[in-house]
Amino acid sequence: MCCTLRSADGHSPTTCMRTSWHTLYFDRATAWIFLLAGLLHFGRMYATEQSMVQRYLVARSDADARRGAMMGVLTTVPVWFAFAAVGACLWGFYQTMDISIPAGVEAKPDTVLPYFIATQLPPGLIGLILAALLSAAMSSVSADLNSVAAVATQDYFARALPHTSDRARLWFGRAAVLASGALSTAAALALTLTRSTAAYEVVVVSVSVIAAGMLGLFALGFFTRRGTRAGAYTGILASLLFVGWATATGPLKLDLGFNFSMNALLIGIFSHVVLFAVGYATSVTLGGHQPDLTGLTVWDAPGKQQVVALETQEPGSVGVQRNSRPT
Question: Would 264 be classed as within a structural domain?
Fold first, then answer.
């Protein structure tokens, strides 16, 4: 958009001001982009991740599962504020104490906390902090690795080889845990050696690329009554194409003439929007079979006590039932 300013006499142009989306700082990791990316990241995690869904399934009722999810959401807010406060305090500490920071630490601001721990705290306290960090990491990673093993065993191994014994599936699950753990360790080491941006930003971008609009798919099925299978598949394809193009021309710096020049965090945000918009438009345009939506969308939530049958992933197995109570 071009705006021409003229002098007081109304004749001679003085300045031409051009504005574009760049002036809104879409090309950098601003606070509002981090906020929006974080909301969608945690929304996708709470709605779609296997490790979270397992927690919902072991709850006594749907009401307990909802309360647990809400408690997790509410406690996330003060935790992240505490993380931000730690960073602000460390910035103030090094500014007021006039202590020089190595160039490598200054280039990666999220490494200032480990640097502070290593250089300013006594050895005994450092050991306690490291033990706490390791225990917290292991408790989180173990759940994710078990989820990977469950999906790999039930969705792939059991379907490809349906007549295998439980012992064979157990050993395959253990091998899946070992392989995924080794890959995670290798990825963490590579990230430590090669990354040039904040670790959280890299994680959010990576997960957004891998998920490729998963939250948009759930929104299509949960917030609308018009979603169809053809619309969902079309939306998935559109989201994959968008993510592939944006990742190649953005973070990977491949020049295709028409490139994604916004911040990489927006790839995940737009991927959900693309999947939902394309999926909904295709569903409305092409139509298709509409199944019974009772209890499946926000508009068709059950109003009385029901027994919800949950199909297990193993072929030929008996469904698991759980009583759900209204809230």
Answer: yes
Place of tokens 């939306």: 235
Q: What is the dihedral of CA 229, 281, 42, 306, to 10 degrees?
A: -50
The CA distances from residue 32 to 35, 36, 39, in Å, are 5, 6, 10
How many CA atoms, within 13 angstroms, populate the side-chain half-sphere of residue 69?
A: 23
**Do residues 190 and 249 share a domain?**
no
Return the number of other C-beta atoms located less than 10 Å from residue 130's C-beta.
12
Domain with 171, as residue range(s), is 123-194
Cα 41 to chain centroid, rounded:
3
Structure token digits, residue 305: 């006590």
Query: Within this chain, do residues 231 and 292 fall inside the same structural domain, yes or no?
Result: yes
- Specify whether the CB–CB gap between 228 and 286 falls below 8 A: yes
**Helix residue ranges, H only, the chain:** 31-48, 50-57, 62-96, 103-107, 112-120, 123-151, 158-160, 166-194, 199-211, 214-222, 229-249, 265-286
Within-domain flag for 169: yes
Number of compact structural domains in the chain: 2
DSSP letters spanning 134-183: HHHHHHHHHHHHHHHHHHIIIIIIHHHSTT--HHHHHHHHHHHHHHHHHH
Q: Is residue 56 part of a domain?
A: no
Per-residue model confidence (pLDDT) at position 24: 52
pLDDT for residue 294 = 75
Nearest to 222 by CA among 50, 37, 52, 43: 43
Q: What is the DSSP letter of 257?
A: S
Instruction: Say what the pTM is.
Output: 0.67
Residue positions counted in the chain: 327
Same domain, 295 and 200: yes
Rounded Cα distance, 162 and 314, in Å: 8
Pairing of strands 320-324, 13-18: unpaired
Would residue 154 count as lying in a domain? yes
Looking at the structure, do residues 201 and 294 belong to the same domain, yes or no? yes
Question: What pLDDT score does 305 carry?
Answer: 38
